[in-house]
Amino acid sequence: MRRGPARPATGAAAATSAPADVAAPAVAPAEAPPARQQLRTEFAFELPRGYVDDMGTVHREGVMRLATARDELIPLRDMRVQENPAYLSVVLLGRVITQLGTVAHMHDGVVENMFASDLAFLQDFYRQVNAEGHTRAGVSCPHCEQPFEVELGGSRLGES
After folding, report:
1. Which strand (E) or helix (H) includes residue 151?
2. What number of other Cβ atoms are within 10 A of residue 92's Cβ?
């Protein structure tokens, strides 16, 4: 074996001849900018019991759209809401539910004739959809430090 002056290694030999205690500089991969997500404005749901129409047909699958400021303001002018503020959720849901089974025309009268359990489901679903799913927060018990979730939603629709 011949000894001579050390020459820098090139190519594949360079990768294998580097000393083990010297780390090669890390090259971070170029990150692509995050893809912009399209805004989702409609959300499918399935009622726990279902709306029963005049013909006895049960309608369970529906679609709710995001509420606009107008959707929350217009019902406040409704005489039924002014006389009974609890009616706000019925009128509001009648505006934002765009489809329910094969019901031809969705309106607050349909919501008014739903079972109470379906109305409660839709009120919760409305809060989730319009708060982007952030109606719960993770917290910890101050005594045992056990993590759990709490509901942050308001008591009625339009009152978050």
Report:
1. strand 147-151
2. 26
